[in-house]
Amino acid sequence: MIPINLGEFITKLKGRTKSPPGVGADEIFWSWFGSFLGIAAVAYISYQYLETTDLTMIIGSFGASAVLIYAAIKSPLAQPRNLIGGHVISAMIGVFVYNHIMSLWLASAIAVSFAIAGMHMTKTLHPPGGATALIAVIGSDKIHALGYNYVIIPVAIGAIIMLIIALIVNNIAKNRSYPEYWI
Predict the structure, then answer these.
(1) In this predicted model, what pLDDT tens digit does every residue of 107-147 receive, in sequence order?
(2) Could you say which of 13, 23, 40, 113 is the most buried, measured as most Cβ atoms within 10 Å of its Cβ?
(3) Interatomic CA distance for residues 159 and 13, integer angstroms
(4) Is 111 within a domain?
(5) Tens digits of per-residue pLDDT, 24-83?
(6) What is the count of structural domains for the chain?
(7) Long-range contacts made by residues 140-149, C-beta under 8 angstroms, separation at least 24?
(8) Domain of 92, in residue numbers
(9) Which helix (H) or strand (E) holds 183?
């Protein structure tokens, strides 16, 4: 049994500090513009060129990646290594788990948990990676039919397209610079 000091626990729930200040209109514009272009690019490729194939280029976790790489560009979670590595590692784990664990509820939990552990071990923590692993398990028949190709397209290629746009858009703005680091 884990001993819990109830008073200390409740104190922790109150938080330690105040919310950070909001951002200005310029920051909002560049975050909006980058996310629009990044998601538009992968969605356009998916719907214009891949719709009639068994492939796709867009997955839900890219929406969360857009928040990081276009709006939270200084975060360690938003750096290129984390974006690409986090998605790719999580996709591999998700596909592996889907192929080897028959129970979807158990496979869902195992895929996300191992994706988090894998990202931690490789210093590529990217929260949308958890969703990428989960999508591999609970995704559509189209996603499941991709098998390990899911790691390449949509995951790796989609993340690279979004990264290229992030590198361009985040460095056009006078007061923005991306990335903070590569390795």
Answers:
(1) 999 999 999 999 999 999 999 999 999 999 999 999 999 99
(2) 113
(3) 35
(4) yes
(5) 999 999 999 999 999 999 999 999 999 999 999 999 999 999 999 999 999 999 999 999
(6) 1
(7) 142/54, 142/56, 143/56, 143/59, 144/98, 145/54, 146/54, 146/55, 146/56, 147/95, 147/99, 148/92, 148/95, 149/55
(8) 24-172
(9) none
Helix (H, G, I), strand (E, B) or coil at 155: helix
Distance CA 94, CA 137 (A): 6
Render 44-83 in DSSP notation, one character per residue: HHIIIIITTSS-----THHHHHHHHHHH-TTSGGGSHHHH
Contact present, 59 and 137 (Cβ < 8 Å): no
Cα dist from 2 to 5, 14, 124, 140, whole Å: 10, 21, 31, 40
pTM of the model: 0.93
Whether residue 128 is contained in a domain is answered as yes
